[in-house]
Structures are given as C-alpha cells and as structure tokens.
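Chapter review: from sequence to fold.
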Amino acid sequence: MVIPFLFELRSILDWTFTRTSLDVWCWMKLASIQADMYVAKCLNMTYAQKKLGEVYGKAQKIFIGCSLILVIILLLVGPLFLFSNLNPTSEQISTTGSSLMVSILIKNGTDSNYNIGLFKTVTTVSDYFINETQYDAL
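The token string follows.
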C-alpha cells in the first residue's frame, strides 16, 4: 500500500486472472475495502490485548491528557506568539513602498527574448514620519 500504484497493479492482476462477475471498478473497490479492514485489524491489535473493561490508571490519563492539552494550546497560541510583537526575535519593519509587475517572458530559440508587460503598479510612501503623540492623536 505504501508503494505507489503497486496495490492497484496487484488488484488488476487479481481481477484479470480470477473468475468473477464484478467489473474492474467494483473489484478495485472491494480490494480497497479489504485493505482498509486489514489496516483496522492491525491497528486494533493493541486493544485486543487489553482486558475488556480494564480502566486506565490516573497517572497514564494525566500524562496523556496534559500532553495533548499542551500540544493543542501550543498549536493555537504558538503562531500568534511567533508573529506578534511579543516575540523577542522580531523587529518592526517599516514599509516605505511596494510595487507589483506582471509580465510574460517569451524565449525564442536564439538569444532573443520578448518581455511583454501586462500590469504594473507602484505605491510609495513619503518620507514623512510621525511620532507617537501624533500617532495617538490620529
């Protein structure tokens, strides 16, 4: 199942040499269902070894539960902290301008190239900077 197209190749070979009334697509669906059931069986072997109705211990529940809660909190808060101003490694970047240009470059077989500009826009910010009191007033 891990190697690409090997499962499909095996299923088609099985269909080719097996006497069946199913068409190839139904056979592939049946093989996929069988494979999914086998994977589920392998994953559930640990549950089969556990005694039916056996309760998990408090230490195991606390360790696993707290670990999962910590991971979820880190996934939620981590990106916010990473891209916020509270991150000690971040520094404020002042943008003075931006530009966008969309063009098509056509290369001929020789050294001649054709560059066709489709769209261009430029936005510049003046050198006028305001201090914190002016910013608070705005």
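Two observations follow directly from the output. The chain has a mean pLDDT of 87. Residues 58-82 form the longest helix (25 residues).
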